[in-house]
Structures are given as structure tokens and as C-alpha cells.
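Can't paste images in this forum, so I'm doing it all in text. The chain is below; anyone willing to post the predicted C-alpha cells underneath?
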Amino acid sequence: MKISKLKFSRSLTESPLSRYFSFSALYIAQGIPEGILFFAMPAWLAMNGKSATEIAAFIGVILIPWSFKLVVAPLMDRFTILSMGRKRPWVIFGQLGLILSFLSIGFVPDPLNNISGLMVVGFCISFFGAFQDVATDGMAVDVIPDDEKARANGLMWGTKIIGTSLSLLAGTYLINSLGFTTAISLLSIAVAIIMIVPIYFTERPGEKIMPWSKGEANLESKESQLRSWSEILKSLYRVTKLRSSLIFIVISFIGGILFGLMDTILPIFTIQELNWTNTEFSELFSIINIVAGIFGMLVGGYLVDYFGNIKMLTIYLGLTTVIITAFAFATGFWTSVVFICGFIFSYYVLYIFLTIAVFAAGMNLCWKTVAATQFTLYMALSNMGRALGSALVGVLKENFSWEYVFIFAATIPLLMGIMVQFINFKSHKAKVDSFKVLDHTLVAPHVIDD
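Text version of the structure:
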């Protein structure tokens, strides 16, 4: 039966509108703590005289849990309360942990002089943020049809960037006006409200809302649930050893280095080198990212669908190389606010479009049998690269001037652009389609049906 795209359904598989709304809300929930952890707090620390090495160490530590996604994903594929859906129980658990850990960061004593305490609590927030992200992505792979994936990625990343930007803007204002503890407590309320979404919507018709509710496991979920550890590992190895997948693994890692570098460089550079305040940086960053996020939501996915993934990745990576290189050599214009704003805007528009294209490429390389785990492998390696990129800022800045730091950053998208040319989606898909799915050899699934 065809369900109208203009109608909400409590079941995600029955309504595109429900899917777009739910996944956008869940990505906003990820964006709020990220805006505080990765942008507002580094800017606040820089404003209060903390060194680039201390700030880079803080960001490096809070990025580490995002590399744990590779361990968490197979666990979610293997175990679940199937009567509530394949991934939805994990989404609810991750969201609850995210709420509690985010609230706890506001109670770190003397945060300006307690970087270690901030690191510990920030690590916990990142862990549950990564946990929720794995579950959300796994649910997206399960319930979003192939012809909606690029558009859904555009909406998801657009709303996440908007959530990140708004939380940065509001967080900076609240920290400066009301203090650190009160600011974080207020923002935790917004994350808690979004908890309603995974509780209200189910993956498929007839599933339970909560373990004690009426309902049962959907037949489609039972048939697609992975049934043994050995099958998960064998299938994952089989698809990731293909050439295009191996190339994409390297691209994901070095792309993460680029993103980690730039996200850490910009607040330190603008505040400590250009003498901006943390309020000025957060306001500019938020406005730019909201606009860039809207662009990503409206056209990011469609451009990939229309022109093709390889072509758009090549264009985005080439433009990123050009603008960072030009900025590195244009030191005479660094005193111009308009020039700095133009550079940051150009970079973040390309960042969002590039992220959407990379995510779509990763999903296209996934084999449905282990899609959630395989996709998480790509993202975990990207986040390992982010942690390394953030940590490199302190080392680079201690040994080189800002010009050479930006030149180093510009070489990364150039290398990625060269590697992208060796990915062949058609050849990869043909090989994946030739794999034999031996469902009849698998043992009974170890899941909780009731």
C-alpha cells in the first residue's frame, strides 16, 4: 500500500515525512553537545588564555570515543530487543546516556583550571554521542530506501550543523552571561526534549513502543537480523577487502585529519592570532554554519544524485585545496574581517557538501548484509583521523607559523582528490552482488523477541 509522503506515520518504514523528521531531530540532538564541546568550549578556553596545546589536547581526548564506534556497531547488529526494532532500543539507550552525561559537564568544579575534569566528562559525552550516532545510522540504513539516502543525508547533516551552530551561539551567550554550569544545564533540556522522538516512533508496524507495551517483532526485522558473530566478521572482511572499499577507508581517515585540523585551528587562530573574542567567533561561526547547513539540506544531496558521487567529490576536494592554499598565502588580508568571514564561509559550505558526498559514497559502498557495521567502520576511521588532526595542531603550531599550518592542511584534500579517482562504484557493486548470501547456514539469532 502506498503511503502519502505528506502524512506522518508512527512507523518509520511507512512515511518518508516521519523518516526525515525523526532522523533530523536525532541529528540535532548530536549537534547540540558537539557545538558546546568542539567549538564553544575551545573558544571559551582560548578566550581565557589557555594554550593551543592544552586546547588541542582537550579536543583530541573528546574525539577518541568516536573511534569506538567500530566496537559498538557489531554489538548492535548482534543483540537487540527485536520486538522494539533492530536499532531503536539502542537509539533510546544512547540518547538517555547523552542527556545524563551532557548534564554532568556543568558540574565540573573550577572548569577553567580543571582541564582534566573537563576531559573526563567530555569523553563520556562523546562516548554516548558516538553510541547514539551508531544506532541512528544503523536504523537509517535499515529503514531509509536507497533512492532517499542522499536527500536524507543532506537533511540529517544540515540539521546537525544547524543544531551545532545554534548551541554554539546560545551556549557562548549563556556561558558569558549566566556562568558555565547554568548554561550547560539549560542546553541539556533541549537534548532531553528530543528523547520524545525515538520513544514515539517505531521502525516498523506492530512493534512495541517500550518493552512492557503490546506488540511483536516484525517479520522483516527477523529475516534481516544478523545471526552470528562469525557471519558478521566474515561478511565485513569480504566486502572491505575490495579495492574501492580499501581506498575509501584511507580517504575516510585522512579526511578526518583535515576536519580535525580545521575545526581546532579556526577558534584558536581567530581568537589568539586575530584577537577576536569568543563571542565574535561563535556568532560568526553559527551564522555561517546555519546558512551552510540550509544549503546542504536543500541542494547537497540532490547535487550528488544528479551529477554523480565521484564528480562532486572531485569538485569539492579541489575547491577546498584552492581556498585553503589561497588563504595561507594571503597573509596581508588576514586583518580584513570581510576576508576572514569569506574564507570561513567558503570552507564550511564546502565542508558540509563534502561530508554529504562522503557519507553518500560510504553508503553506496556498503553491502546490506553488514551495512551498519561497514558504514560504522568508515566513520570510526574518519573520527580516528579527527582525533589525530586535532592533536597535530599543537605540534604544528609549536614548530611552524600559521601560514605553514594552513599549507599543510591544504595538501590533505589534494591527496584525497587523487585517491577518489580510483574508486569504481559500478565494479564494486557488481562484486558485492555476486556474493552468495548463505542465510540457510546461519544459526538462530540471539535476540530478545519479547
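The CA atoms of residues 317 and 413 lie 5 Å apart. The two ends are 28 Å apart (CA to CA).
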